[in-house]
Amino acid sequence: MNALYKLKNINLNYLLNGNNIKILKNINFEIKKNERVAIIGESGSGKTSLLMLMSGLETPTNGSIIFDKEDLSKINEKRRTEIRKKKIGLIFQQFFLIPNYTALENVMFPMQINKINNEKEKAISILEDFGLVNRKNNLPSELSGGEQQRVAIARAISFDPEIVLADEPTGNLDSKNTELVSNLLLEYSRKKKICLILVTHNMNLARKCDRIMKLMDGQIKL
């Protein structure tokens, strides 16, 4: 099976108060298409930074990030933005829903950007799968935390990206919603054959993935 991601000798350093801080050190791994991978590690180990690099929102100090045969570390920001728009779904712990858009409009938004036909019908179908069709006309402020995260996940997968990158998607949820949201995310990624990279502290969630990678002190420990 072809690799969707290839990270080669990735290093990420920040200059802070004149000091060179090493965040990621010599990272090497591959992610296959339609694979679900959990990245675990202590706070400050570099998990979110790694996800930011994989999304093209940051560039490494050195090394290569090959995504779908393109090196994200070498192409310009315009091209990286285009790749994110068409191929990468992003889920954050803070939801980042558009506050003046309804749940339905939030889910439709990526499809509208990508000029996908019948976006309203598709968005309603996804919200139905996620048990939110009765909340489709509600604004984010009118939804619970669990409902907002379900909308955020529905939005991330609505345009059938090649991969979803999720940063602690259940970090702000209670145990009941954590179980519901994690199962929805994993089931939908399998159903749609979408690759999933999941940064999490939740070992129960991590064990449901195909593979677990541990990040410790900026390095991958197998």
Describe this structure in words.
This protein has 222 residues and is α/β, with parallel strands linked by helices. The chain has a single domain (3-221), classed as 3-Layer(aba) Sandwich (Rossmann fold), CATH 3.40.50.300. It has 7 helices and 10 strands. The strands form 2 sheets. A 6-stranded mixed β-sheet has the order 6-7-8-3-9-10, with helices on both faces. Strands 2-1-4-5 form a 4-stranded antiparallel β-sheet, with helices on one face. Helix 3 packs across helix 4 (119-129), helix 3 (103-113) runs parallel beside helix 5 and helix 5 (145-157) runs parallel beside helix 6 (175-191). It is globular.
- Rg result: 17 Å
CATH fold node name = Rossmann fold
CATH architecture: 3-Layer(aba) Sandwich
Give the overall shape.
globular
The total domain count is 1
- The counted number of beta strands is 10
Summed up, the helix count is 7
CATH superfamily: P-loop containing nucleotide triphosphate hydrolases
Q: Let me know the largest β-sheet.
A: 6 strands, mixed
Q: Which bin fits the share of residues in helices?
A: 25-40%
Low-confidence stretches: none
Average pLDDT works out at 92
Instruction: Determine the structural class based on helices, strands and strand pairing.
Output: alpha/beta
CATH class: Alpha Beta
Strand composition percent: 25-35%
SSE pattern, N- to C-terminal = EEEHEEHEHHHEHEHEE
Strand order of the largest sheet: 6-7-8-3-9-10
Distance between the termini: 21 Å
